Amino acid sequence: MEQEVFEWKDEYNIGVEKIDNAHKELFSLVNRIINNFMDRNFDKNKMTCVEAIKYLKSYTIKHFAEEEEYQLSINYSGYNTHKRVHDNMRSVVIPALEKEVAIKSYSKESLEHFVGVCAGWLAAHVLIEDQAITGKTKSKWRLNPNEDDAEVVDGIVKEYIRGLFRMTANLVSKNYEGHKLGKLFCFNDVLSDSKGTVYSVVTAIEESMFEAVASGLMNSTVYELDSVALSMVSEMYRSFNNEVMMAFLHDSLTSVESGHITNDDFYKIFEKVYPECSMLWRTEYGYMAFCVSKK
């Protein structure tokens, strides 16, 4: 009998039988894949994992269509925003994960990463955004995500990561909802534009990426970050936040304050409402999130 590692709970129900049953099936699929990883004979179970992931993808896409049809049938006011979050999962997140597992020849690490992202996204999405459909919670998306804005930010960020950090970045999510990443280095800038609008801009990168940036600056491998390396990389991220925002807003900016924030403070950004811009990239050295909120 399989152990329920990724366990369905009654509190996840939204009160619509067809949708709740689909969510239970998705949880069951993820749990099945996780159990394969927990089995010591991964090579024996590898193809089972690969086939299960293919089915998980097809079932997820089918479920999204059915859920969107239900939202339209009840004239759900948050339909457009919810559909864009689904579209992001369909056209950005899943293809990015598929590309990674293919490049890494379906290694255990890449398959674990695939199912980990799916599990984190699924739990957060069902608990908040899906329950908002029936009024059990409120959607955390304040604004309807702007596709054009996301494309612009993606292009700018990729250019700066390539030029400033000498890394290649692949967009993983246009609508990052704060699922847990590895241990992070987080830098926050509070910036004001020429009209007096104030923005809180946070760049959060996994420590493996942070160490790679520091090693490149210091021309040697950095395992522990001393005050010099920390100051150098902090200044780079301060510049990064400013340059990306200026390029996006086409406006001059004044720094109000800046500094590091803790991992806990970073995740608190997502507790009440999601940032207006909340995106996630993966580089060869780890993840980077970029979040912008109007204050």
Question: SSE layout and pairings?
Answer:
Blueprint: H1 17-38, H2 42-73, H3 79-103, H4 108-132, H5 147-165, E1 169-173, E2 184-193, E3 198-206, H6 207-218, H7 227-249, E4 253-261, H8 263-268, E5 277-283, E6 286-294
Task: Give a short summary of the structure.
The protein has 295 residues and is of the alpha+beta class. The protein is 56% helix and 17% strand.
Helix content: 55-70%
Order of helices and strands: HHHHHEEEHHEHEE
Kindly provide the radius of gyration, computed on alpha-carbon positions and rounded to a whole number of angstroms.
Answer: 20 Å
Q: So how many helices?
A: 8
SSE class: alpha+beta
Number of strands: 6
Annotation keywords:
295 residues; alpha+beta; Four Helix Bundle (Hemerythrin (Met), subunit A); Chemotaxis protein chec; globular
Describe this entry's structure for a reader:
The protein is an alpha+beta fold and 295 residues long. The chain has two domains: 10-132, Hemerythrin-like (Four Helix Bundle (Hemerythrin (Met), subunit A), Up-down Bundle), CATH 1.20.120.50; 147-294, Chemotaxis protein chec, CATH 3.40.1550. Helices cover 56% and strands 17% of the residues. The chain contains eight helices and six strands, in the order αααααβββααβαββ. Strands 1-5-6-3-2-4 form a six-stranded antiparallel sheet. A hairpin with a 4-residue loop joins strand 2 and strand 3. The radius of gyration is 20 Å and the shape is globular. The N and C termini lie far apart (51 Å). The mean pLDDT is 82.
